[in-house]
Amino acid sequence: MRIIAGSAKGVRLAPVPSSVRPISDRAREGLFSSIGPDALDGATVLDLFAGTGAAGIEALSRGAVYASFVDRAPAAVDAIKRNLAIAKLSERGEIHPSKVARFVGRDDRPGAPYDLVICDPPYDLVGPELDDVLRDLADGWLRDRRSTVVLTRGHKSSMPVVPLHWALARQLRYGDTLVILFRPEGSA
Questions:
Q1: Average model confidence (pLDDT) for the chain?
Q2: Residue 184 CA to its chain's centroid (Å)
Q3: Does pTM top 0.90 for this prediction?
């Protein structure tokens, strides 16, 4: 895995822990091309189920000013720390070793509001747990209607319940991965 563009372009990231399924380089490239370069300039990013942190680090490399990384697995937390250091972006990232549902259910919402939320849950995570994460994200975590929520799913996975005011902006497929972009409509 490598960083595709920006200040850390070409940086090779640390090996992927065995329990982690990161977004592929190709899917990340398509995702960030779809978002566009202007959307990341000065943006704040929340990377949920962060794994290696590659998606959030890619956003930092492309102009985001700050990223929060949330993952509960110790191997993932270590990989994110290593990858931020390798990319020389440690000072712009904060790691939260926590279960994602617990983190987004907090009342204090660290770092919020966010311009970009990347939610890359395990493909077998379905039902109420994922539905609740998306519902909680819609409650004060997003900056405004220009914010983007990215959800990855296996192409055969069931679709979670998405907040009513989130509009489908784009859906991309890379191999077995669906990358779905939502934008809230009418958010303040």
A1: 92
A2: 16
A3: yes
